[in-house]
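Model it.
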Amino acid sequence: MIFLSASIPVQERHRKYIDTADVIAIRDAVRALATVVIPKSHLVWGGHPAITPLIHYVMRKMNADLKEHITLYQSEWFKDTFPKDNLFFENVVITDKKETLGSSLELMRNSMIKNHPYKAGIFIGGMDGIEEEFNLFRQTHPSALLLPVASTGAAAKIIHDKYLVNPDPRLLNDYAYMTLFKSLLKDQINF
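Modeled.
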């Protein structure tokens, strides 16, 4: 089981994310990861509106019934703005809406990260939520493989630079994401 934490930074948030974000790389990396993981393993992610349509696109192109290979988490806080792509996925976990956005997201992240036996966590682009999910993930799954894809910039690059000791240089320089993920996840997924 593989966890994906990803988003595309927006101008309104902290500049440290948007200044290094490579939006094309973020989209390419998410599509490649979904293509590599879904047929052979199980992909779990939080339903960011910029990411869910990319995974839906990959599922359509695969032209196979692989719906049991994915789980999408959403907070009820966003119920009125769920992407229409959510309707495509059968395995959607909607966590309760709490009093604040922060507490609603905390509930969703705890459920999404603590309720599954992950072999790896992949972090692509993103903002502060990616950093929060990285910290929760590494505390909860200390033996899981951690892959912040620094070439996508934003929070993934911050995590890569701040937390990894002797990181694989391909996380920073390799944009051939399909080959990269097949190589880095070969021990977590039976190809």
